Amino acid sequence: MNTIHVNINNIEIPTTADKTILDVCREHKIDIPTMCHLKGLSDVGACRLCIVEIEGMNKLQSACTTKVADHMIIQTNTDRIKKYRRITTELFFAERNHVCSVCVANGKCELQNLGYQVEMDHVRYPFLFPQCEVDTSHPWYVMDHNRCIMCTRCVRVCQEVEGAHNWDVMNRGHAVRIISDFNTPWGESTTCTSCGKCLHACPTGAIWPKAIVQGQLEKKPEIIEELIEKRKMHDGF
Amino acid sequence: MNRLDFHTKIAALQQLDKTKTVQHRIGICCGAGCISSGSEEILKKLESEVQQRGLSEKVEVIPTGCMGPCNHGPLLKHLDQHTIYQKVNCTNITSILQQHVIEQTLIEDQLLFSDSRTNAHADYRADPFFKKQCKIALRNCGKINPESIEAYLLQDGYKALDKALFEYTPEEIIGEIKHSRLRGRGGAGYPTGIKWETVYKYVNNEKYVICNGDEGDPGAFMDRSILEGDPFSVLEGITIAAYAVGASKGYAYIRGEYPLAIKRFESALKQARKWGLLGNQILGSSFHFDLEVRIGAGAFVCGEETALIASIEGKRGTPKPRPPFPAQSGLWGKPTLINNVETFAAIVPIVLKGGEWYSEIGTAKSAGTKVFALAGKVNYAGLIEVPMGTSLREIVFEIGGGMQNQASFKAAQTGGPSGGCIPIEFLDVKMDYESLLSLGSIMGSGGLIIMDEHSDMVDVARFFMEFCMDESCGKCVPCRVGTKMMHDLLQKICINKGTNKDLERLEELALYVKETSLCGLGASAPNPLLSTLRHFRSEYETRIHPSQDTVQDKNQSG
Amino acid sequence: MNNTLSTTDPRTKLISSKLKKEAYKADALIEVLHTAQNIYGYLPIPVLAYISKSLHLPPSRVYATVSFYHFFSLKPKGEHTCLVCTGTACYVKGAQQILEKIEQVFHLKPGETSKDNKLGIQVARCVGACGLAPVVVLDDEVQGNIVSEEFTQTMKEKMGLL
Asked: Measuring CA to CA, which of A150, B118, B167, B384 is 20 to 30 A from C140?
């Protein structure tokens, strides 16, 4: 593929047109926070954390879904973008019931890290305190909707990598929730293979194994990409 | 049927029409509004009355689409003498037949607007409600039987398709549409010709045309009325578009709330297939095209192109980031043209009369006419079509007959939940895309709600925010959480509990949601809030109690 | 939960013929759901299970779609439905007062169905009859220019509650 040139934060970068802005930034260690993006899964552009300014476009674009083009001039870290990223982070915290101190993911949580990254010292918006269920019906795993940020990484990994499609999203607006089957308890699902990929894909403490206690959660989101790579290797057999 | 057979059949139809002895064609409005006031019963009564009196040779009773002044219905129109009677019922219909049709005497106190105008006009076309209008998309609405292809054919129906297929190349049609300067009537106002050209240029043996009839704006009923009143004109427009961009399959996505529109459009499809105007080798040419109706299931966001596509594919109607645009990768990943019902309805006249003719109507940047659903506190509410650039004042005070109960005009709301409110200072604003945008509102699809002094503008903003919050698909964070936050803050201000800090946060959130949302719904959701803040800020400020600001903000992060 | 439909039930046959007509294509899901809701009045889980199996769609995908659209209901509706339009024109002309009056007379809020399942109150975001605002759809019949006092009386008559 032909080499093209893009300008990101005033640095000229040679690359190819099949990549997204996020790919190029990650390759060149340009930091862009993301939540709904997970390498190996399809991108949906839902969390809006990776928004960037592109010269000539009047709308902010999500870096994970926008392909680079020759002579594209991109800014990833303007004051406006920083401000908006912080608001998004605050809204994440205000939307459900996140209490880091008692969470299994404390210290290993992508949402918590995001909070540090955007220097969020407090949330200026009223907490919504929605009523959320904790589904403990699965023999090994727990789904705690209080800690879910609706990134839908679990939905996509289950559908795209495992192929089970146990998870999906119900309702709309702020009433959306992750569901298994017909909104049936996870333990009664007819489609779940108990493979545990959703657990590794989940960025927060929303999905976790029963066998661990607070703060000891080990998640390996990179395992998803590894799986996909390994499958490609076996294609020749 | 090949072209020659078609022409022969049309000639026969015209011949038959000429030999008719009918002197009085009486139209009964069977638009959704008049039907709900009982017009179908009146139609039956009149038909049987005509039969009983042995007048069938002289009087023809025709069910028609919307005639316009909906809140005066049920309406009866003498189609040859251009007289409209209002508030017709099963009792006075016989006297109208007797006096007006047989004895040829006008019943003055039952004429349209006779209860509100000092001199009601026997010829409705002389009344300001109609005089200021220019009907292009609505040219057949309220004039012909929408369920009869023959009636449509007698109004030069399918002449444009015939012309397009045999006298024009696809490029020439696109050129004509570009020349007309027609812009998308669904709200965004993107030039239609350029959209067609983009789809045309993508090489693919599978392309789609979609007619967006998911009219979700509360307070809008233009698409409904066109689909109910003149479905063939929309269908012919879609067919021409398909030929121009090279599509062989199309979908009409119609709101589930509009059963009558669905029924009439489906009936139009059936009849067009019978006449060989849809299907294989249309009029004997090499062009194939067929269309399916998809019924919307109640989601405002499906008016957004990518969400509508997801819905046609049988999925949740959640939008996708653009680019790629549907013109490149739309339905099932194929190049797809999506236009609104009203846009398609304007195609046939443009092809028949030329782009030049259309471009001369309206203003320099907004050509042609726009259909508005005029509603709210005006005397004459209903469906109107005016040249772009007609002033709001003309619409409210001349066409709309002024404010109800002598109340004073406070604001006009355009563009529904994506639009804004225009205050009295800007009553002379020209209704076109640019002028409305400069006032912080939008043209939108054509909902036009007039409010009087009793409307509370903060509550109006809350009303629209509640709508957007309920209709948010929940995919992206700014729209999902942001609309909820803004709604809660507005609610707080509405009950006089708001603080200056709340107002500050509200404004910050509004800009944030506008700029970061994934799709148009989120991006425009703050518009009613921003526009009321701009024009009616004092109404917010009088509800703020500075004393509340001293209360410590207790929120802390987890 | 019993998730199987009786094959002798004529309603099952209606759904299966619709499925056949749509050639069991996954993209026909919404069309099939419309049909099913017309037949049953709502969408019971066994019906969804049947559709999910026939269209080879995962259960969660079917449920996700059903719960997204306002038109589809997972709960049975009342024998009579009263749908109050809360579109902009109706809002400006007093839809809220109609809802208040209904609540006062029937003790039902939007989305609720009476205990005897006789009456269900719903709201719609514009039924497109704005010229007649405020509008209520009573058992599929559009009624315009509503005056709340008279209207609750009409409702009672309609439901034989007088």
From this structure: B384
What's the whole-number mean pLDDT along residues A83-93?
Answer: 98
| Overall pTM > 0.90 | yes
Which two three-digit tokens encode residue B552? Answer: 């410590």
Tens of pLDDT along B200-240?
Answer: 999 999 999 999 999 988 889 999 999 999 999 999 999 99
What type of residue sits at position A21?
A: I
- Give CA–CA dist B143/B166, Å, rounded: 29
Residue B209 CA, chain-centre distance (Å), reads: 19
Is B555 inside any structural domain? no
On average, the pLDDT of chain A sits at 95
Look at A179 and C63 and tell me if their CB atoms are within 8 Å: yes
Distance from the Cα of C90 to chain B's closest Cα (Å) equals: 8
Provide the CATH topology of domain A3-77: Ubiquitin-like (UB roll) (3.10.20)
Are residues B216 and B302 in contact, defined by beta-carbon separation less than 8 angstroms?
yes
Is the CB of A91 less than 8 angstroms away from the CB of B476?
no
Give me the amino acid identity at A228. I
Q: Looking at residue A89, what is its pLDDT?
A: 98
CB C86 within 8 A of CB C123: yes
Q: How far is C2 from chain A (nearest CA, A)?
A: 13
Superfamily of domain C80-158: Glutaredoxin (3.40.30.10)
CATH of domain A101-235: 3.30.70.20
For chain B positions 316-345, those within 8 Å of chain A (CB to CB) are 316, 320-321, 323
CA distance A66 to B226: 38
Q: C24 at the B interface (CB within 8 A)?
A: no
Tokens of B236: 């012919």
Provide the pLDDT confidence category of residue A214 given band limits of 50, 70 and 90.
Answer: low
Reported confidence tier of residue A212, pLDDT bands at 50, 70, 90: confident
Buried b vs exposed e over C24-62: b needs ≥16 C-beta within 10 Å? eeebbbbbbbbbbbebbeebbbbbbbbbbebbebbbbbb
Tell me A57's DSSP state. Answer: -
Q: What does DSSP assign to residue B394? A: I
CB B49 within 8 A of CB B60: no
Give domain limits for chain A: 3-77, 101-235
CB distance B120 to B109 below 8 Å: no
Q: How far apart are CA A100 and CA B307, in angstroms?
A: 36
Q: Are residues B107 and B96 in contact, defined by beta-carbon separation less than 8 angstroms?
A: yes
CB A86 within 8 A of CB B508: no
Four-point Cα dihedral B505, B510, B513, B515, nearest 10: -120
